[in-house]
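This part of the workshop introduces the protein records we will be handling. The structure tokens are whole numbers drawn from a learned vocabulary of backbone shapes. The record below serves as our worked example for the rest of this section.

===
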Amino acid sequence: MIDAGLERHKFLRKMLPGQLYAVGGYIKRAWSLLINCLYDYWRYATYSSAVMRGDSAEKLRALITLRYHSIEKGLSLPHPRPGFGKAEINVLLGYLEQYLKRYGPAEHLTVPVNALKAYIAFNLNHSLVDSVLDARVSDIASVLEDSFGPLTAGGGAMIVTAESIKHSVMATGPDFFNTRYSIRQFSDVDVPLQLIETAVQLAQKAPAVCNRQSGRVWLISDPDDIKKALVIQGGARGFGDRVNKLLVVTSDLSNFQGMGERYQSWIDGGLFAMSLIYALHSKGLGTCCLNWSKEHAIDRKFKAFLGMPQSETIILALAVGNLPDEIQVAQSCRKPLGEVLVKYARTGIS
């Protein structure tokens, strides 16, 4: 079958003078770039809090998380200042009251309330009493306790020891990282759903801006659905039929606000994706990252196939399977350390 686009391309190249053809190509690429940038602008302006702040439950939850996490960060400093962050805490209280009024009690609100309680307890230890703050927090806590019982979820700061961290990573050496390959040869053994669930839970410990945790994983298990998804993605030719599970990692724009966070979904989503890859690796599973640097038409098509909302940014697709006894992998040599590690000095960069 002859590709119509390719034939048209050959015809224009033959008919137009070389310089005019080059200019036409420049204009076409520039126009395509503009259209795709406008698509990204529309998505961020519509689904983040950059323009319409807190106008959905998910956006409001993210704004609450941002504020309560500032309390946790303050309490985790070497020498917290009594009464710190009062303006931010008033904003947090306003968001909590707004959420309850609009959407009613939700269990995830127990965490910010516990963070506020930890803040009040810290101030009391320093003989600082704020009766207005106490009353507002108590009112919110009462509403939540009526729905969910005692507020036992986390929130605030906690003590860990250096020894416990060192002990937990003692068995993790360079081999763990050096034996992570992009796998394109999978065995016929089915990957249990429980292993995927465990890996996703481990990946949730990935760093996230102000703990907003925008990452999400879409799991595709049916072989026919995997095949259709990979046709749209277009990067698994030659091994797509061996993929046992296909994961699509996304980041929800509802979690971000302001102009400075317009690319934060890619950063947080990337951190979450890498944590997921290492979590799957720790379970003895093979993975292969499938790129999602796609133009808007393909992005829309894939989201329509999955029933995915436009608020989610697709970071990558991830092919997952069990490892055969012997595997051929690309060597994928890394750059010398000197080209990657930049040592800054006051006299300049070395």
Summary: The beta strands are 215-220, 245-252, 285-291, 312-322, 344-345, 348-349. DSSP finds 13 helices and six strands in the chain.
